[in-house]
Design a protein that fits this description.
The chain is mainly alpha-helical. Helix content is 58%, strand content 0%. Bound molecules: zinc ion.
Length: 73
Amino acid sequence: MKKPDEDLQLQLERAEVVRKMRKEKINNFICVLCGKRVTRESFRDEDALNEFKISGLCQACQDEYFKDTYIPE
Ligand SMILES: [Zn+2]
């Protein structure tokens, strides 16, 4: 039987790997979801670019991801 601590450690290590991979993709301007290369110009505005730096989602993926919560001005 596994000790609960080992499970937690494993989960933390997995989370760390995912976090590192995401950071690496963001640094290389690659969308973490669709894998497409992005450019500064491919984002609608500064907010979308900042969102990419946090979530790693390109403009198209952001549109898809946030479309349910999008409120027109
Ligand atoms: Zn994408």
